[in-house]
Amino acid sequence: MTRADGRAADELRKVKITRNYLKYAEGSVLVEFGDTKVICAATVEEKVPPFLKGSGEGWVSAEYSLMPRSTQSRNVREAARGKLTGRTHEIQRLIGRALRSVIDLKALGEKTIWLDCDVLQADGGTRTAAITGSFVALVDAVNSIWGENSKPFPIKDFLAAVSVGILPNGVYLDLCYSEDSNAVVDMNLVMTGSGQFVEVQGTGEKGTFTQEELNAMLSVGREGIEILLDIQKETLGQLAWKVGREG
Amino acid sequence: MTRADGRAADELRKVKITRNYLKYAEGSVLVEFGDTKVICAATVEEKVPPFLKGSGEGWVSAEYSLMPRSTQSRNVREAARGKLTGRTHEIQRLIGRALRSVIDLKALGEKTIWLDCDVLQADGGTRTAAITGSFVALVDAVNSIWGENSKPFPIKDFLAAVSVGILPNGVYLDLCYSEDSNAVVDMNLVMTGSGQFVEVQGTGEKGTFTQEELNAMLSVGREGIEILLDIQKETLGQLAWKVGREG
Amino acid sequence: MTRADGRAADELRKVKITRNYLKYAEGSVLVEFGDTKVICAATVEEKVPPFLKGSGEGWVSAEYSLMPRSTQSRNVREAARGKLTGRTHEIQRLIGRALRSVIDLKALGEKTIWLDCDVLQADGGTRTAAITGSFVALVDAVNSIWGENSKPFPIKDFLAAVSVGILPNGVYLDLCYSEDSNAVVDMNLVMTGSGQFVEVQGTGEKGTFTQEELNAMLSVGREGIEILLDIQKETLGQLAWKVGREG
Amino acid sequence: MTRADGRAADELRKVKITRNYLKYAEGSVLVEFGDTKVICAATVEEKVPPFLKGSGEGWVSAEYSLMPRSTQSRNVREAARGKLTGRTHEIQRLIGRALRSVIDLKALGEKTIWLDCDVLQADGGTRTAAITGSFVALVDAVNSIWGENSKPFPIKDFLAAVSVGILPNGVYLDLCYSEDSNAVVDMNLVMTGSGQFVEVQGTGEKGTFTQEELNAMLSVGREGIEILLDIQKETLGQLAWKVGREG
Amino acid sequence: MTRADGRAADELRKVKITRNYLKYAEGSVLVEFGDTKVICAATVEEKVPPFLKGSGEGWVSAEYSLMPRSTQSRNVREAARGKLTGRTHEIQRLIGRALRSVIDLKALGEKTIWLDCDVLQADGGTRTAAITGSFVALVDAVNSIWGENSKPFPIKDFLAAVSVGILPNGVYLDLCYSEDSNAVVDMNLVMTGSGQFVEVQGTGEKGTFTQEELNAMLSVGREGIEILLDIQKETLGQLAWKVGREG
Amino acid sequence: MTRADGRAADELRKVKITRNYLKYAEGSVLVEFGDTKVICAATVEEKVPPFLKGSGEGWVSAEYSLMPRSTQSRNVREAARGKLTGRTHEIQRLIGRALRSVIDLKALGEKTIWLDCDVLQADGGTRTAAITGSFVALVDAVNSIWGENSKPFPIKDFLAAVSVGILPNGVYLDLCYSEDSNAVVDMNLVMTGSGQFVEVQGTGEKGTFTQEELNAMLSVGREGIEILLDIQKETLGQLAWKVGREG
Q1: Cβ distance F127 to F54 under 8 Å?
Q2: Strands D185-192, D159-167: parallel, antiparallel or unpaired by DSSP?
Q3: Which of D54, E34, E190, F58 is the most buried (most CB within 10 A)?
Q4: Does the beta-carbon distance from B41 to C72 stay under 8 Å?
């Protein structure tokens, strides 16, 4: 069960999160899961979507885009087509939903935080990298407006995501593109710092899976998430202490 | 743990599948999960998407739409907006993917089967009703072109879907709209006739969930799926025997 | 001059109007002209188009859509194309205009009533069925907001529509699809309960027509309209008395 | 019954058709009905819409557009909105349908003739001016490809269109914009050189109309059409003899 | 160095500007540079784009469109495509920018003046004709709202534009379409009445150019501009005195 | 005449071009002009636009996009709006045109080379940085398909671009965003390795300029271009020798 890049089946690729990657954004990171590279930029906007106007609550929303040559063959820009693909819709809804699960939107107040996830290079796992990186950018952005405020920090817990898949010869963590193409079952897992599930999305387009296989994927995924959480904490340094702080 | 409509927590709503609901389609059903009503129409088209041309393989694709007054307040037509919402994209991708998991696309040959799922009334669970009903329409459509062909019937297994959710006071099967609005966790489960998972999509936007809660949802969902499979078989009558037939 | 379905030349198909077809709409019917089946849903919205803001007047607007397998071969969804066809524009403008001719928009006040006409099955005459059915849904919707109000009911007269055509061998009422395809001249007629014309649209794409032929079509059409008006009245029962009531 | 511009009730505005208005088009006119001015340009294209490929038949199609300051207040370009209005769709379908009624599409062969109707100034009756002018441009365009061909000229008859309306004080021919705004009933009439009807479109949005009123409108309209036909013939000069020529 | 139409290399085509070409617009001209014909209509709108709301300043914006048969082969309407081409964007941005350079937007106050440039016939130089003609329409439109106001007239200087090109055998002024197609370098020059440059756009797609060639083009262009300015002044008559008037 | 960052008026910002920035593209660079950072990715596609099919000639085309937080306040994605802005159209047309001026499209053969310019950070001069960087990516992409081919290398000359502007107190090279916002005149200059002009685009929206000022801008710009050409050559190393090689 050796992999193309020599990793063990339950081993993550080299993960790196570079903070303050962009000059203007309130929070921004370059997140790398091996050759997968995503810029996550967080913007604080002083308004909310229409359904929240006057509610006192805030919102977190994500947008996702593949750069044309992030992929092996050039993909046509969605701006040139004039509309988003279904895949993009699905991914950006997932990212937004995941991040909203760990933020206290009432405490945030009537603000929207946008997470722009632009994929420079796509070698599998772009959505899980985007969630993992966006969490760090979100912490920075919230911190930029929270400052020395004595109220509890509105981000209640850590959040990371990883992919797991069943290939013909076993369960593998953090699939790269060539593995993903051969996966019989593909799972994306989003979990919090306290070990709760936020999203469990297992899909068997090329095959189906049993309860046992599901459990095996969850178990391997959980281990990967724990390592990602450690990397986030290290990256955030002192700021990590604010997450989940009761005030 | 009594519900608004008197059901038990692990009880499905009244499910009804009416075959041959439309005059022109190769397969069509009206599927009802309580007040949720969806028309599923299957069309056989003698061509395939560009990426399959010349491959000898077929395809199954789904489209989903809410009629404007399927919902409590009128929703604006996507045709009037000029584009699909992210929710529609997500649902129709799910339906297509789920159906493809039980059909032998090579055996089908270079044909596309379209499943049009139009929601007349939306009282929660439209996507699971759409998958469950579309499966029946798909069997009819494939049968219409397969006839007395002695080759194995290309639909390899049954397929049904159900929703399960965690509400503040427990785990519930087949949520209606008012329950769905209060759910802390929402899961959609797609399974085959042989008890394998095809899709497990658990989402905790208003909260998170533990491994134990995940297992409870899977267990309740599995029971619901078994009943749906029985209803499909009864609805299909003699035709049910063709599904998974080895030839 | 016998027809495929055995009807006389001046005979309508079997017409059926089922009220309260949908659970949520303020008014809704399933209208059937033979195999042509259209759902007409009326929605009351507490706002008006920009050009009426502050005028004190209301508006009635219609939208029309063919479900993909309402037709013999699947028609591509307008939502997927991203725009409405010219035919759809033309039909929904006709429906709205026709309904506005019998409602007192000043008495209605600053409200919009939307009529959503979704064609389940299209066997010719969908626009005339849609007008005839929408009228009933409109009465129900207006009644739902008018209640026991002592002011004159704002719907001033009945309204129905029928198609007539010239085929190579004569003038026929209420054409089904196969007849419509062979028609030399096609006319749609909208009339009120008091026998006035609202719309006369005669089109001779495959031929032209004389004054005498025009008169023959109007005469046959008028008879058909009278029967449709009777069916509407019977369907509405007691409520029929409110239409045109002076208060 | 005097009118703002001193015309009699059954009198046309000053009508002028200038041929060869544009340098590049195969046929082109500037048609003026009083202050209403429309450029009609005919283009011969050596292909047909998909539904006619290989049929040996041709097609005639029209496009219609208001220039932004053809109207009293500036109207937003449809190109800027990104889509056509319903009104534009309705008018361009009418123009195309009307022209197709007098051309032998089989004789034309697999060609499309486009009629581009661009309104420079809109003072009522743009669609009837467009049909009347487009007919002349169509004759020129067909002539440009027919030359001295001895086969029957494919344009079988003349074609003109006029509007008639019922105002509070009577029936009027060829309404200008201010009259049109006050019309209770508005009718557009398209007729052939031999006095047959092609389109009768009577609409009573602000009121309804009786059989007698319909007859009065048809009678006044017919007289107007006859004058328009004379103007077309005079404009075409020698070429007028080719229309309807049996070969 | 004789040209197809007998002009000298540094000679303009016959230029004609007809004022008050349209009935409804606040200012309108038909501008002709030889066979190139453009309608320029100026509209005064009592609002400004969002970024100027409350600023007290006005705006000038242009839209440009080729009529389908302004060109040798029919060009598809941008309204039918649903979007503007890059060429259109580029040209209308240029026209707006050029006109804004000679108007005192603060003095104008919170108004937008739209310049609609619709090309009837395109024989090269449509953008320079559009700028030259729009200037005259702009003066008329501003005059229509300025009246006998004693404040300085907000148009500060004259403005005209011309094209110059390098063909294989020399530098030519005001290229017609056939010359433009063979040009190695194409330059558009916009200048004020006082001889200042507003835009210098030299492009060498089929070749490159030296400093000397640039100077030669600027010199020939400047002479052409001077003649255009004279024609504008003559066309405006008395009104020409208001331009640049200090009050 | 000192600048915010201490540069001299005729001094470029720190320029850096990093080759092979992306894993999959045939050529790719990260180009930095100070804080302006643009990824330029070159893709070789084995087909040409319709107007070149069968011509034996190739094409070079560019697309340009600002990432949402490349700018001080977040800009809405063009994919979300569904269309490109005029500014984007203008810039990507400029980039494509400029690159085509130095490539022998016949020698290239029926291939398209796409240049995708994605702006990570926008601090003024993104279009000139994009042209300068794209040239290097283009050389790499052409080299990847040319290999040891003995035919003349199809890139005939070097190409670089720079901005120059007139501020209230003088002429400045390579404006950063804050300078650009205050510029009275803005010029973009594209030149070849042999000192020829490809594009001269001088625009005076906030003012106008004289011949002397134009000359001063061209002179300062030319010096900047020379330094950029040196940086390109150094970056390309050995490969620089192929450019303009006669075979």
Answers
A1: no
A2: antiparallel
A3: E190
A4: no
Question: What phi, psi does B73 have (nearest 5°)?
Answer: -105, 150
∠ at Cα F136 (F130, F137), nearest 5°? 80
d(CA E128, CA E38): 10
The mean per-residue pLDDT over the stretch F73-84 comes to: 92
Residues of E in contact with D92 (CB under 8 A): none
Q: Give the side-chain half-sphere CA count within 13 A for D133.
A: 33
**Gap between the Cα atoms of D217 and D185, Å rounded:** 10
Closest in A74, A78, A82 to F43, CB measured: A74
Distance from CA of D6 to the nearest CA of C (A): 30
Q: Which of A179, C212, D120 is nearest to E40 (CA)?
A: D120
* Contact between C93 and D86 using a beta-carbon 8 Å cutoff: yes
C-beta atoms surrounding F54 within 10 Å: 7
Name the nearest CA neighbour of B2 among B167, B123, B208, B161. B167
How far is CA B160 from each of CA A186, B215, B228, C110, rounded to the nearest angstrom? 20, 19, 6, 47
Q: Which residue has the tokens 């724990």?
A: A226
Give the pLDDT confidence of F50-68 residue by residue, as tens digits: 999 999 999 999 999 999 9
**Would you call F68 and A43 a contact, using CB atoms and an 8 Å cutoff?**
yes
DSSP code at position A25: S
pLDDT tens for F104-119 read: 999 999 999 999 999 9
Interface of C with B (CB under 8 A): 22-25, 28, 35, 39, 41, 43, 45, 63, 65, 67-72, 74, 77-84, 88, 114, 116, 118, 120-121, 123
The b/e string for D170-194 (b: 16+ C-beta within 10 A; e otherwise) is ebbbbbbbebbeebebbbbbbbbbe
Q: Do the chains contact at D101 and C197, CB–CB below 8 Å?
A: no
Distance from CA of F52 to the nearest CA of E (A): 16
List CB contacts (< 8 A) between C35 and chain B. 23
DSSP F111-132: -EEEEEEEEEE-SS-HHHHHHH
Inter-chain contact B28–C82, Cβ cutoff 8 Å? Answer: no
Sign of the C-alpha dihedral, residues E130, E134, E136, E140?
Answer: positive
How many Cβ atoms are within 10 Å of A164's Cβ, its own excluded? 28
Q: Return the ∠ at Cα D41 (arms to D39 and D46), rounded to 5°.
A: 165
Q: Residue B235's closest CA among B15, B18, B13?
A: B18
Is D210 in contact with C202 (Cβ distance < 8 A)?
A: no
What is the interface size between C and D, counted as CB pairs within 8 Å?
A: 90
Closest CA to E102 of E161, E180, E37, E164: E161
Give C-chain residues touching B39 at CB under 8 angstroms.
67, 120
The tokens for A11 are 């081993």
Shortest alpha-carbon distance between residue F94 and chain A (Å): 17
Instruction: Write out chain D's pLDDT in tens, 247 residues.
Output: 579 889 999 999 999 999 999 999 999 999 999 999 999 999 999 999 999 999 999 999 999 999 999 999 999 999 988 889 999 999 999 999 999 999 999 999 999 999 999 999 999 999 999 999 999 999 999 999 997 777 899 999 999 999 999 999 999 999 999 999 999 999 999 999 999 999 999 999 788 999 999 999 999 999 999 999 999 999 999 999 999 986 5
Alpha helices by DSSP H, listed for chain D, are 78-81, 86-100, 105-108, 126-146, 177-182, 211-236
- Residues contacting F111, CB < 8 A, separation 6+: F44, F45, F46, F47, F48, F58, F59, F145
Q: The pTM is what? A: 0.94
Chain B residues near any Cβ of chain C (below 8 Å): 22-25, 28, 35, 39, 41, 43, 45, 63, 65, 67-72, 74, 77-84, 88, 114, 116, 118, 120-121, 123
Statement: residue A219 has pLDDT above 90: yes
